[in-house]
Amino acid sequence: MLVPGGEFLMGTDDKEGFPSDGEGPVRRVRVRPFYIDATAVTNEQFAEFVKATGYKTEAERIGWSYVFGMFLTPRARDRVIGSPREAPWWMAVKGAYWAKPEGPDSSIRHRRDHPVVHVSWNDALAYCAWAGKRLPTEAEWEFAARGGLEQKRYPWGDELLPNGEHHCNIWQGIFPYLNTGDDGYIGTAPANAFQPNGFGLYNVSGNVWEWCADWFSPTYHAQFIDQVQENPTGPPEGFTKVLRGGSYLCHKSYCNRYRVAARSQNTPDSSTGNMGFRCVVDVDG
User: Fold this and answer.
1) Domain boundaries, the chain
2) pLDDT tens digits along 14-38
3) Mean pLDDT of 132-140
4) SS (H, E, C) the chain
């Protein structure tokens, strides 16, 4: 989809936000026009890449990836090798990777049109290079995700459920114990589920987190509050990379990060069952 570029107000000072994530302060940013995938890269698309190149993801080379505990297959339960103390619902499962997202006896056979997951930032970069594309900068991602709306909480406005209708795939119920699936999905949804935003982009809120090109910093951009940033690319170095958009595991009680200005981070070699990506292309090729 062609995103026309322009100037916008990036970030938020919303009371629902997480100041420690560096969501604010709101500042003026200008981006060039660019093309962006309407959806996150799907399992089918990633499979074509793997078939053409023989690429092995970092999860395959390392030998494990993080699976949400609710989704563990019977065989996977015997292959859990650990769990992070701060997020015990994540299980490190030997043999989990993009084509076996819940463990060795799972498959993507009926999820070819779902976003690929268990891909690291490095994996995403490899796919982009093969496809002749690149990852979006964080500024490009937010500009595109806003869909032409200014300072709205979500890509469609300020109400999460306008007229009682679901517009994204997030956790419904009590996290992490009960997901009612009221939005139609428990895990990932098809990459083109729900209505697109004003620029024709699907699922920029919820479904899967999306990698951006930038290094993460909660404070770096505050220095630009009194000027218009031109095509910013984030800090020159860092430890973790930016993730945007939230996922099917986000819930207001814990991870209210499906808001369009919300941010997260992870190391470039990390992979989980709720992280994916979409690509961009410069207008001039």
Assistant:
1) 2-282
2) 999 999 999 999 999 999 999 999 9
3) 98
4) CEECCEEEEECCCCCCCCHHHCCCCCEEEEECCEEECCCCCEHHHHHHHHHHHCCCCHHHHHCEEEEEHHHCCHHHHCCEEECCCCCCCEEEEECCECCECCCCCCCCCCCCCCECCCCCHHHHHHHHHHHCCECCCHHHHHHHHHCCCCCCCECCECCCCHHHCCCCECCCEECCCEECCCCCCCCCCCCCCCCCCCCCCCCCCECCEEEEEEECCCCHHHHHCCCCEECCCCCCCCCCEEEECCCCCCCCCCCCCCCCCCEEEECCCCCECCEECCCEEECCC
Angle at the Cα of 51 from the Cα atoms of 186 and 205, rounded to 5 degrees? 30
| CATH of segment(s) 2-282 | 3.90.1580.10
State if pTM tops 0.85.
yes
> Residue 73's pLDDT band (boundaries 50, 70, 90)?
confident
Residues listed for the chain: 285
* Res 285: pLDDT: 57
CA of residue 3 relative to chain centroid, distance: 19
